[in-house]
Design brief:
This protein is about 35% helix and about 20% strand. It has 13 helices and 21 strands. Helix 1 (about 10-30) packs parallel to helix 5 (about 145-150) and helix 11 runs parallel beside helix 12. The model is unreliable at about 1-10 (pLDDT under 50). Bound molecules: 5'-deoxyadenosine and iron/sulfur cluster. The site of iron/sulfur cluster (SF4) has 10 residues, from helix 6.
């Protein structure tokens, strides 16, 4: 229970809802004959991970016990829909959950997250998967205690999906995965409408959180032992364009760099990260701020998507091959030890071999420290899905493997650059595979494995990077 804190000002309504849920948990426990257990499975990005912490915090506060596996009394799938594979994974696993429910008929199965914001998917689940008890959307997370109360009171097939983002997913208790680092939403939604992307349709219009709320939340976390924060948003560089009604500032009065400057003043906070940055909005002011700051980590995740100016235009990305290259070299010049990482997609409709070679060219020129590579996935409702020049699978697969090899070769060379240097590492956890190893991260986000005792977890220590592997290091504390 030690990591549970109320992050925002005392929300009396939520408190009383959790109180009701506590009674429900007791009643549910007496039917089951044991304390009810739960498991939250998270698919997708950091935003979902953050929402899952709220779901877990709520259930723990109400007296449920967290279980390591999905054979639990309450199972929640927090879904993603950015690529079709993410949806297929959920459908694949629902069958397994149904098997558990046959053994434990009192079991409650809940689905939430981005996939539920797609009306066709939510309807399909309601019709074809009747064993699912609760479906709720990304804008309904704050109503989770009430929704749980409804299914525990015997209501069947509860479904609540709000279409619009009201930036009100705050106030629930949070069960933090790490005691010393945390992600914080600074904005919700996305207004960019990249032509392949479903996010603006499922996560709604972009809205920035009131800076006062963000600062208060970070201060509370820091008082509770957090030394590293990750500011989360689909496009953090456009922070401040639009605030909700009643905010302490109005749209355009404050930007991302202003917010960073305020956050940097918080005593005790040691590392600030942010993601994701859109190349079209990344300002010189931000580059200067990162260079000048001793708290902002030297890492920028700057999704490229494609290196072809023609494809970028069709993707509605608002930059060209040349402007991306110019931005990347400006960043590297001003902050020589910066790590640049990216997202790249192959097989966008109409992508020719020459377009793909432009992508390979940018990868070679920028020398990304690492990259997430994706095969384009057709998402219903997006403009790109309507195109009749989709690329054949074998062509896409061939391009994907060529890209992956290049990205890995360059990443390995980039990682080698820090070999034999001494760098500060924030020790994060015990190594999953090797018992006497710990795992941490450099400011540039690279992973380091080192020997040391568990009480170093949560501390920043100097480490000699003995050996660079592909994207990580083995090191020893000095
Ligand atoms: N197909 C493949 N990849 C996608 N992404 C977003 N939409 C799609 C899609 N339809 C990738 C982008 C984005 C990352 C989070 O997911 O590269 O930056
Ligand atoms: Fe999707 Fe583009 Fe928004 Fe990122 S910026 S979430 S890729 S629409």
């Amino acid at each position: 229970m030690k990591n549970i804190i109320q992050l925002t000002e005392k929300n009396i309504e939520i408190d009383s809802e959790i109180e009701t849920l506590r009674d429900d948990a007791l009643a549910f426990g007496s039917v089951l004959g044991h304390t009810p257990t739960f498991h939250v499975t998270t698919f997708g990005c950091q935003m979902n991970a953050r929402d899952s912490e709220k779901l877990r915090g709520t259930l723990i506060s109400a007296g449920f016990m967290e279980s390591d596996d999905e054979d639990a009394d309450v199972v929640i799938y927090n879904t993603c829909t950015v690529r079709e594979n993410a949806n297929l994974k959920v459908y694949g696993r629902l069958g397994v959950l149904n098997g558990y429910k046959k053994k434990n008929p009192n079991m409650k199965i809940c689905l939430c997250g981005c996939m539920m914001q797609e009306s066709d998917e939510a309807e399909k689940i309601r019709k074809s998967y009747p064993f699912v008890d609760l479906i709720f959307g990304t804008h309904n997370v704050n109503n989770f205690p009430v929704l749980m109360h409804r299914i525990l009171s015997g209501e069947k097939h509860v479904k609540e999906i709000l279409e619009e983002n009201k930036a009100s997913n705050e106030g629930l208790p949070v069960e933090r995965k790490y005691s010393f680092k945390e992600g914080i939403n600074i904005m919700y939604g996305c207004d960019n409408f990249c032509s392949y992307c479903i996010v603006p349709y499922v996560r709604g219009r972009e809205i920035s959180r009131d800076p006062k709320d963000i600062l208060r939340e970070i201060e509370t976390l820091v008082n509770d032992g957090v030394i590293e924060i990750m500011l989360l948003g689909q496009n953090v560089n456009s922070y401040g364009k639009k605030f909700p009604e009643g905010s302490s500032v109005s749209g355009g009065e404050m930007n991302f760099v202003d917010l960073l400057r305020e956050i940097e003043k918080i005593d005790g906070l040691k590392r600030i990260r942010f993601m994701t940055s859109h190349p079209k909005d990344l300002s010189d002011e931000l580059i200067d701020e990162i260079a000048a700051s001793n708290k902002i980590c030297h890492h920028i995740h700057l999704p490229l998507q494609s290196g072809s100016t023609k494809v970028l235009k069709e993707m509605n990305r608002h930059y060209t091959k040349e402007s991306y290259l110019a931005l990347a070299s400006k960043i590297r010049e001003r902050i020589p030890d910066i790590s640049l990482t990216t997202d790249i997609m192959v097989g966008f409709p109409g992508e020719t071999e020459d377009d793909f070679l432009d992508t390979m060219d940018v990868v070679e020129k920028v020398r990304f420290d690492s990259a997430f590579t994706f095969i384009y996935s057709m998402r219903t409702g997006t403009p790109a899905a309507k195109r009749d020049d989709q690329i054949p699978e074998e062509v896409v697969k061939d391009r994907f493997s060529r890209l992956l090899k290049k990205v890995q070769d360059i990443g390995t060379e980039q990682t080698k650059k820090l070999e034999c240097k001494v760098m500060p590492v924030l020790v994060e956890e015990k190594n999953e595979r090797e018992e006497n190893l710990l795992t941490g991260r450099l400011s540039n986000n690279a992973v380091v494995h080192l020997h040391g005792s568990e009480d170093l977890i949560g501390k920043i220590v100097p480490v000699h990077l003995d050996k660079a592997m592909n994207f990580y290091y083995f090191g020893e504390i000095v």
